[in-house]
Amino acid sequence: MEIQTFPSEIVFFDLETTVPNKTGQHFHILEFGAIIVCPRKLEELESFTTLIQPKDISVVSLRSSRSDGITRAKVRDAPSFEDVAEKIYGLLHGRIWAGHNIRRFDCVRIKEAFAEIGKAAPEPSGIIDSLGLLSDKFGKRAGNMKMASLAAYFGLGVQKHRSLDDVRMNLEVLKHCATVLFLESTLPNQLEGQWQSSSKIMTRSRSNKQIAPRAMPYSKGGSLGMMTQNVKNLLSKAQGNQALQNLIKHSHSLLR
Asked: Which residues belong to any copy of the Exonuclease domain (predicted)?
């Protein structure tokens, strides 16, 4: 009997850092969050998150513009990166790394942080950067393709900018995009233009301080079924045939 094999586990991870406001300043990691995901079922197997105290705590703001943001008081008693480096290494090394814009940001920051403490950085067996992947496959239908815009597009709520919440949101966004792309590839003629949003999506940014209007609380799991039901309702109005209903059920089962 042939034994079916699957790729190594995927680790979605995210960093929250300081933002340099002067030339020559460095990014300082303030929080690390990760979930290990089974590539066969896209289920979360393990999670880890920790605040991190930078060597110079004065680089952390006293206040945060977000209600649950990271402040100097929150990281004052947190472990240093060196204290949690072994745990982070164990989570990342040899696994497939996944995240939003991780190639240009998170991967670089991880290598810098390990270099600063004189230890070898973890190495991935592969990288899935959802920013590049979705920009190529999903297009600009969700706006600027930031995680906040993608989450608002699918009704997943407002991005919290906390590591563990963001990686879970990242996984849900990928599931939703995969469902749409699967249906489009199967019925391209019938579904052309069906997924475009009729309303503008506003997201919080440093420049305009706008907030996404679809501010529904995000919770882990459960949202894929709701989204698929919405897709089912939309397509039922357009087609109303049993074969299409079976296709939607099949796409849902693939991504549960």
From this structure: 9-183
